[in-house]
Design a protein that fits this description.
Layout (H helix, E strand, L loop, with lengths): L1 H19 L1 H21 L4 E9 L18 H12 L2 H12 L14 H4 L1 H12 L4 H9 L7 H7 L4 E5 L5 E8 L2 H58 L7 H38 L2 H8 L2 H26 L8 H26 L8 H37 L4 H36 L4 E5 L12 H26 L6 H6 L4 E6 L6 H9 L12 H13 L7 H4 L4 H14 L9 E5 L7 H14 L4 E5 L7 H4 L8 H5 L5 H4 L1 E2 L5 E4 L8 H5 L2 H13 L2 E5 L8 H5 L5 E7 L5 H13 L4 E9 L8 H11 L8 H6 L6
Parallel strand pairs: 5-12, 6-10, 6-11, 7-9, 7-10, 11-12
Antiparallel strand pairs: 1-3, 1-4, 2-3, 8-9
Helix pairs in contact: 2-16, 4-8, 4-9, 9-10, 9-15, 10-14, 10-15, 12-13, 12-14, 13-14, 18-19, 21-22
Length: 798
């Protein structure tokens, strides 16, 4: 059984804490619920509109010599686009688009009717409706011309409205806008995806336009050169007799024209690549970051390897051309082409991983530009040796033709120049036209898959969920506060607290509420069956009632006023526990003390004296508190002659003792307050007085000062048969109770135990136990207490 009780103790402690803090838990619960309900009912509904866009990389130019440069990892690419959408540049473009829209004066984000969307605005409209504000006033407020905000201000607020997230395993991005106005949410979402698509299209067209403009300028130069070459050839043929060239010379001229065309075409590609690099540098702006990234050794090595392979291919191609074995299906050429392709793929993969890891420092939009810069630089470094090799081949063929006679050489040069310029012109013209078509048809990499639609239902607030969460939070907060306050409370509250300190517990006394004592008497006076003062006549009850009305402090004598109450039973239990504490000897002199003032020792000793007198014992109650006496007030006695007078020899015992209305109970007040209470209580006169009193009384009780404050109780404890300590529940600290007990043991006092006083049983878990047992012994003839009596006999009385 003891083991079972021990196992239940922690749970009982937890239940006791919860029961004691039930009002805190209830207050926290109601407060949190009130706030939750208020916020839920006054919260502005939020609407969400979503749009989907797909980002799919395509060739920026799509022509030989102008290959697409967008080779990077998909995840990095999508992440870059997410950052672009959430960036300030796009927000500014969206703000401008909203300002120019037809609904600009209806959008709260631009300052239109913004006060009506706030909680204060909603509350103001509610008050206007409640107190009868005219609809005309409201309409005037709403029709008032709004003052639109500036673009910069709107651009700063826009990122707070949107959320951007990639859709997993796709090339699509979901853009969501949350607003208090459903139309505004839809308009902002569509404005964002439109502005994003336009920005991407403009970026794609800008690079194409840069190369197209370069080719347009070069086309004019080459066209002029072609006209001059054709005119020079025509003039020469007019003045000279046509000459016939040998087959070998014709073959040399054909090869020279072919390689010179390749040379100038490659040179044009090199210049176009440089123009693209110039455009990218202009977009990047800060060259410090570019230089830092360009210094990456591994990528530089890959670019050098590609340049070396291109140079080897160009040299081998020249060798084949010089020996008349030029064939694009040559095994060596195909092997070099394969090595170049593999190295190019490796370079692009390393470049993508380099950018994805963020090692170079660029972010967002610049990531893409940096990657393209790397590829353009690699293309330039491969074109440079190619151009140099073709130039070397052209120079070799030109030297071979110099052996011809001067007139034939001049004719060959004029023919070669015209043919080369014509081929270059046609090639440049073809590329230029294709670039014009590409620029016009350049749609960018963004496709709007699903534009935003007008949301019909609000996104929040979810009132049901909020209320459930509020309930959980309120209960959790209340329980937490209850346990926190219990942990911070260092006072003695339960008998278990005393037992844990090793102090024997003599009993516990519920709190006495003086204001309710008179109500208990009226029940008995009105003839209620088994009244609280059972056995007294109405005349006696009326006398007590009059006394209580004149002297409210007498209500502390609950054992006399309501001898059938549970509190009186508690004092009888204390009396029994004291009697059987030492069965081997009789305890005739008892001292009652406490750790400090206000613990209720005087009330406790007075009621203990009454229950002992009611048992038939002749009892003397002595007020030994010679500093702040109380008992004379409780019993309405004159304290001018009392204990102090007896001890100094100015009065005898008979003069100092006063009878009371209670049979067998006499009181000895404190008497005049002496300057040396401790010396008087510790004197031999005190010992002689005590021995004399024991001759006349069966039980002598002492009410002494607090044991910690003064030494009076410790001095007097040597002369008595037993001492018990009174501690007040929720008032006396555990340190004070422990120290008081130790002080009494230190002076070799016969400590009987500790009494837990003023227990607020209504705050204690399990208080029904007392009511149940009291109800059992006080039921009426019908087996039940009257309703009014059950209410009055509930705790603190039961």
């Amino acid at each position: 059984m003891k083991e079972k009780i021990a196992r239940q103790t922690p749970l009982a402690d937890y239940l006791r804490v919860l029961y004691r803090g039930r009002w805190i838990i209830l207050a926290s619960f109601l407060a949190v619920m009130a706030i939750t309900v208020y916020l839920g009912m006054t919260a502005v509904p939020l609407y969400q509109a979503s749009a989907k866009v797909m980002f799919k990389t395509e060739s920026n130019i799509g022509l030989p010599g102008f290959e697409a440069m967008g080779y990077w990892q998909t995840e990095t690419m999508i992440s870059n686009q997410v950052e672009i959408i959430g960036g300030r540049a796009l927000a500014k473009a969206v703000a401008q688009k909203l300002m120019q829209s037809e609904q600009a004066h209806e959008l709260p984000i631009l300052g239109a009717n913004k006060h009506l969307q706030s909680r204060s605005g909603r509350f103001s409209r509610f008050l206007n409706a409640l107190f009868g504000s005219s609809a005309a006033d409201d309409s005037r407020n709403e029709m008032q011309e709004p003052v639109l905000l500036e673009v910069e201000t709107v651009a700063r607020e826009l990122p707070g409205y949107i959320s951007v997230a990639p859709i997993r395993s796709t090339d699509m991005i979901l853009l969501s806008v949350v607003s208090e106005d459903p139309q505004e949410a839809m308009i902002i979402a569509n404005a964002y995806v439109e502005a994003y698509s336009e920005l991407n299209r403009a970026m794609s067209q800008a690079e194409v336009r840069q190369v197209k403009n370069f080719l347009e300028n070069q086309l004019g130069v080459i066209q002029q050169q072609l006209a001059e070459s054709e005119l020079a050839l025509k003039d020469y043929l007019k003045g000279e007799t046509p000459m016939t060239l040998t087959d070998e010379t014709n073959g040399l001229v054909t090869k020279l024209v072919e390689f010179e065309s390749l040379y100038k075409e490659s040179l044009a590609d090199l210049e176009a690549a440089r123009e693209r690099l110039k455009f990218i540098d202009q977009q990047l702006g800060k060259r410090g970051d570019i230089a830092a990234i360009s210094a990456t050794s591994f990528l530089d090595e890959l670019k050098k390897e590609m340049a070396d392979l291109q140079q080897q291919r160009a040299a081998y191609l020249a060798y084949l051309a010089q020996n008349g074995r030029l064939d694009e299906n040559n095994a060596r050429l195909q092997e070099l082409d394969g090595q170049i392709e593999r190295l190019t793929q490796k370079f692009r993969a390393e470049l993508a991983s380099f950018t994805a890891a963020g090692l170079g420092g660029p972010a967002n939009l610049q990531d893409e530009m940096f990657m393209r810069k790397f590829e353009v630089e690699a293309n330039i470094e491969t074109l440079i040796p190619k151009v140099a090799s073709l130039k070397h081949i052209v120079d070799d063929y030109a030297k071979k033709l110099e052996s011809l006679p001067e007139k034939k050489l001049l004719m060959v040069r004029l023919q070669r120049s015209a043919q080369v310029d014509e081929k270059i012109f046609l090639m440049m013209k073809e590329k230029y036209e294709e670039l014009r078509i590409t620029e016009v048809g350049q749609l960018g990499d963004v496709r709007i898959i699903e534009p935003a639609e007008l949301p019909e239902t609000p996104l929040g607030p979810n009132r049901k969920l909020n209320i459930i969460l509020g309930m959980i939070l309120g209960l959790g907060l209340g329980v937490g506060l209850a346990f926190l306050l219990d942990m911070l409370d260092n006072s003695v509250r339960t008998m278990e607290d005393l037992e844990r300190m090793g102090q024997p517990v003599l009993g516990s006394i519920p709190m006495i509420k003086e204001g309710e004592t008179l109500a208990r008497l009226k029940i008995s006076k009105n003839g209620a069956p088994n009244g609280v003062h059972h056995g007294l006549s109405n005349g006696k009850v009326s006398a007590i009632e009059n006394k209580l009305e004149q002297q409210p402090t007498a209500a502390r004598l609950i054992t006399h006023v309501a001898p059938k109450s549970p509190i009186s039973e508690a004092y009888r239990a204390l009396r029994t526990n004291i009697q059987y504490t030492h069965i081997d000897r009789t305890l005739r002199t008892l001292l009652v003390t406490s750790p400090g003032p206000g613990d209720g020792k005087s009330t406790s000793v007075a009621n203990l004296a009454i229950v002992m007198a009611q048992m038939g014992s002749k009892v003397l109650l002595i007020d030994a508190d010679l500093r702040r006496p109380v008992l004379h007030t409780v019993f309405n006695l004159d304290r001018r002659v009392g204990l102090s007078n007896v001890l100094v020899g100015r009065a005898d015992i008979a003069e100092a003792v006063s009878p009371t209305d209670i049979e067998n109970l006499h009181i000895m007040p404190c008497g005049a307050l002496p300057p040396n209470p401790s010396e008087l209580l510790g004197s031999s006169a005190m010992q002689r007085t005590l021995e004399a009193l024991k001759q006349d009384y069966e039980v002598v009780l002492f009410d002494s000062p607090p044991v910690i404050a003064v030494t009076d109780a410790a001095v007097l404890a040597r002369w008595v048969d037993g001492v018990f300590l009174v501690v007040k529940a929720g008032h006396t600290s555990k340190e004070a109770a422990f120290r008081s007990y130790a002080l009494l043991n230190q002076v070799k006092a016969k400590v009987l135990g500790t009494l837990l006083n003023s227990v607020k049983v209504e705050s204690m878990y399990g208080s029904y136990y007392y009511y149940y047992h009291y109800h059992y012994y006080t039921q009426n003839s019908n087996g039940k207490l009257p309703k009014t009596q059950r209410k009055l006999l509930s705790w603190p009385w039961s």
